[in-house]
Amino acid sequence: MSLSKPVSYPFPWTPPLEIPEQWRHLRQQPILEVCLPSGDTALLVTRCADVKALFSDTRLSRNTARHPDSARISANNQLFGDANIDSDPPRYLAERSVVTRAFTARRIESLRPKVWEIANDLMDQLAAGPRPADLVSAYAFPLPIRVICHLLGVPTRDRDKFVGMVNGFMSITRLPAEEVESCRTGLSTYLTELIEAKRDHPGEDLTSHLVRISDEDQNTLSAYQLRHWVQTLLIAGYVTTATQIGVSMAMLLHRPHIVKEIQADLSLVPSAVEELMRYQVMGSSIGSLRYALEDIELSDGSVVPKGATVMLSVESNMDESVFPDPYTIDIRRKENNHLSFGSGIHYCAGAALARMELQVTYEGLLTRLPNLTLAVPGAQLRRAEGGFINGFTEVPVQW
Amino acid sequence: MLIDADRSTCVVSSLCVYRAPGVFDQDEDGHVVVVDHEPAPELHESVRRAVRGCPTQSIRITEDD
Q1: Cβ neighbours of B33 in A, within 8 Å
Q2: B26–A105: do the CB atoms touch at under 8 Å?
Q3: Is B55–A341 a contact, with Cβ atoms under 8 angstroms apart?
Q4: What is the residue extent of each domain of chain B?
Q5: Distance between CA atoms of A294 and A184, rounded to whole angstroms?
Q6: 3-state SS class at B39
Q7: pTM of the predicted model, to two decimals?
Q8: Termini Cα distance of chain B
Q9: Hey, what CATH topology would domain A7-398 get?
Q10: Does A100 contact B at CB distance below 8 Å?
Q11: Are A117 and A360 in contact (CB under 8 A)?
């Protein structure tokens, strides 16, 4: 490896609505040594072809928490790492398939009218309220929270209970260790209570379904694994989508010519969603952490050594050899196999749900509030630093 | 064009169903089902896009000579 000090990762988004300058130079080398917020060193694999291949490479383990020499993202928070959960095949695939049956295209499409109903309700409130308004608190978070609560059978009124604890759960440097721990314990207690409530009064929701499967056969889903999956579904079910709604809407509103293009032809909404997924990746690749079980040779002959902690670069969405003119937001891009949902067996289980929520959002907001604009200059938007995902704390809008 | 898909490696991304809806479907668990093994020529490009997008390369096509 190089003798120079590893570069700090994630790269800062300054200015907030432009791709960080470092992203442009990353692919000059296939592997870049980076320093994580914990102070530990990891290897960022930078080129799209390598990243895609490694997402499907079983020599990389997702069980970083089971390897004591693995780099940590945070010094005081294990985040999603859990040595008691096996995130590699075959165990992972067996558990995953229990969950993914709730996310088929047919089931997601049957949810679309419900998502429109929630979106319309939130837009009614937004339109009737004072201007400017904050899009993040008025729409970006409430929409996916209400959708995932509907799917999991969580009372929406519980939102105030879990949102604060989820924020703490995902702190990297934002909170001291004892606060992180209190949020993690609190969330765990809340989920245990939720699962008990579903056991006593089962419904048609996904949580009840998973409780039933676990109660029937602990080998399919143990009580511990059940809580882990409900927790993962709840958190991944809204934080990512909410952040993507906030930041991608800001990206769009900062570029009014693109807004006009979409308004003139709503059939562009799905490809606009994909392009904003490619372009705005919520900050960084830290969610892709993996541990090398063996030496792994990349396409150019360079080697990821056994024992290294690896990140698969979502910045490879800017790889010129795969995405022509990558720094231009092109909502008509034909071939857009971006890696924002990952690839391989860990491909985001909620991808189709997220896509649908984003499609409803772009079409809803841009037709219902056709004169929607940012109420502050884009350069003034602030990211919430020090967390697993760094979206904008506020997106003030006017219409 | 001939299409074949491997249900055992499918991870339910649903991308193929959205990219080529008349050609691909899903079983009750969400795993890929090919409903049109020899699609009409006008569907070939959307099928190729589905193949390239599949996160686990679970779809195979044999092109006509």
Answers
A1: none
A2: yes
A3: yes
A4: 2-62
A5: 33
A6: coil
A7: 0.96
A8: 9
A9: Cytochrome p450 (1.10.630)
A10: yes
A11: no
Q: How far is Cα A239 from Cα A234, in angstroms, rounded to an integer?
A: 9
The residue-averaged pLDDT of A350-362 equals 98
Of B15, B18, B56, Cβ closest to residue A344: B56
Identity of the amino acid at A18: E
Q: What is the mean pLDDT of chain A?
A: 95
Q: Identify the pLDDT of residue A303.
A: 98
Strand A296-297 and strand A60-61: the pairing is unpaired
CATH of domain B2-62: 3.30.70.20
pLDDT at residue number A384: 87
Has residue A2 got a pLDDT over 60? no
The residue behind tokens 């990219």 is: B19
**What is the distance in angstroms between the Cα of A287 and the nearest Cα belonging to chain B?**
17
Domain spans in chain A, listed from the N-terminal domain onward: 7-398
